Inverse folding.
């Protein structure tokens, strides 16, 4: 477990308290049923911004708090526990691109409103059903960007896009030349096809690996949300087994079920270790960030897959119904497993980086 500063401990506890009191899973259910255009609660997002979460990565000079990726992960983990629908992770991914490749003028224009929660930003990379950063066809000519991006998280409402083109990353405001088509995935969150037709674009500076740096940070943040989801799914299943009686016995008394819970517990401990390791590697600027992120995303994907599946199975028939929350965790899990590379993709990259 990461060693937290006093400020980070306070941030984690505040996020947990807010999520439990203001954004339980029932709030997600209510949002899903209401289906607002942005697919999140705008008032809840503003409350998160007022607590400084939108500016966790933004330097203090630009209106943020500059606490880094471990701190971002602490918040996303707590929100993930309750499946809070928030554009925080997507905006943080776009913020990473601005921090790594933005000019002074670009940062001055966009970082303060991002930190204030006035701008939702999104990272637009994929042009097909799978994460394939090497297959980008989007082009820019004379400062105008054209191309189509698929399954852009928070693409329904983003006011700023960081778009991957053949020759780098570009900032594209979400108005002129931008057409959005909602894509309803199983998790009930915002995913959109976004078409850019001669949209004004400003290039971000940075080396040839800027896209990789940004998507690695996006994946690491996603892993923190996945960790919170896995922990909550495990805890709810454990509580259920301790109270549900069948054949005159509490389910937790059956050794076969104890073994299944023990396996999940050990996998969760490993998951926490590698997820925190990836976030710490980013904050410290270590040379092995890519390996750490791939390890974290592979383990996180496999562990969340296991725990969400077991949550359904061990709850029995009630777990199969929409009235129970178990299905929400499984559906969100399947979407996050695929984002920014699934477990197989990251295992392969980890092996290649290791020279195998």
């Amino acid at each position: 477990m990461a060693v937290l500063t006093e400020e980070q401990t306070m941030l984690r506890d505040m996020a947990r308290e807010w999520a439990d009191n203001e954004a339980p899973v029932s709030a997600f259910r209510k949002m899903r049923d209401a289906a607002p255009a942005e697919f999140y609660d705008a008032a809840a997002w503003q409350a998160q911004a007022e607590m400084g979460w939108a500016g966790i990565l933004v330097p203090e000079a630009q209106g943020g708090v500059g606490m880094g990726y471990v701190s971002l992960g602490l918040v996303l983990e707590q929100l993930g526990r309750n499946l809070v629908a928030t554009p925080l992770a997507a905006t943080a991914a776009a913020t990473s691109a601005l921090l790594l490749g933005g000019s002074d003028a670009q940062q001055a224009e966009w970082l303060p409103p991002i930190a204030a929660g006035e701008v939702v930003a999104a990272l637009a990379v994929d042009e097909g059903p799978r994460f394939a950063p090497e297959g980008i066809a989007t082009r820019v000519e004379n400062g105008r960007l054209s191309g189509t991006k698929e399954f852009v998280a928070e693409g329904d409402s983003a006011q700023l896009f960081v778009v991957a083109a053949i020759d780098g990353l570009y900032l594209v405001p979400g108005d002129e030349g931008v057409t959005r088509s909602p894509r309803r995935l199983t998790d009930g969150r915002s995913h959109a096809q976004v078409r850019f037709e001669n949209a004004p674009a400003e290039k971000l500076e940075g080396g040839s690996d800027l896209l990789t740096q940004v998507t690695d940070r996006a994946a690491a943040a996603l892993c923190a949300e996945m960790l919170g989801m896995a922990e909550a799914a495990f805890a709810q299943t454990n509580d259920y087994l301790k109270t549900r009686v069948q054949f005159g016995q509490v389910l937790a008394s059956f050794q076969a079920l104890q073994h299944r819970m023990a396996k999940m517990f050990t996998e969760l401990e490993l998951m926490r270790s590698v997820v925190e390791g990836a976030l710490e590697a980013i904050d410290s600027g270590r040379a092995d960030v890519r390996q750490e992120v791939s390890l974290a995303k592979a383990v996180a994907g496999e562990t969340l897959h296991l725990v969400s599946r077991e949550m359904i199975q061990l709850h029995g028939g009630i777990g199969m119904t929409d009235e129970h929350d178990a299905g929400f965790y499984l559906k969100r899990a399947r979407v996050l497993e695929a984002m920014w590379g699934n477990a197989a993709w990251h295992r392969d990259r980890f092996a290649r980086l290791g020279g195998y």
Q: What stands out?
A: The beta strands are 121-124, 139-141, 144-153, 160-165, 168-173, 178-182, 191-200, 202-203, 245-246, 249-250.
